[in-house]
Amino acid sequence: MNNYNYSIEKLFKIICKYQCKKLIKLISLNYKIDNIENEIKNIYVQIDKLDIIINLKKKIPPKKKKIPINKYRCQARIYNYHNLINIKKNGTLKIGTRCKRKLINNTKYCLQHNKSLTHGNYLKNPSEYIKNHYIKGYKYYIKKENIPLNNIININDYSMIT
User: Contact 95/126 with Cβ under 8 angstroms?
Assistant: First the structure.
């Protein structure tokens, strides 16, 4: 038995002894019984004789979800609070992020985005309404999270946003 199991066993026995002593004292007060010390000692001996088996299971780390390759990935634009506006390699700004779920049969979207496509298709240019929606969210994010000025993306040039 390793030290960790031993300490849990010991702690459990201490708690049992304490609770039993409390219970016996309560019973003795209610029924006016004297000389409970021998009874408490007998219970302590019985608790010490107990063989407690503790099975500790190892925690299994959660599996990382595999993101499907782009060919089989949903094309919906999603509103990711921490990733509202991205800078692409060619210098353009990209609004939102792409859904990470896999497509369902013969469609461009996953099951949820087939039902409701709120922010449009990620591969197509967003409407002015969607751009303004994300820019408003980005400004709120900067204000709330106290992001340093050198990390803020210049979003005043709308021509760069796709």
Answer: yes
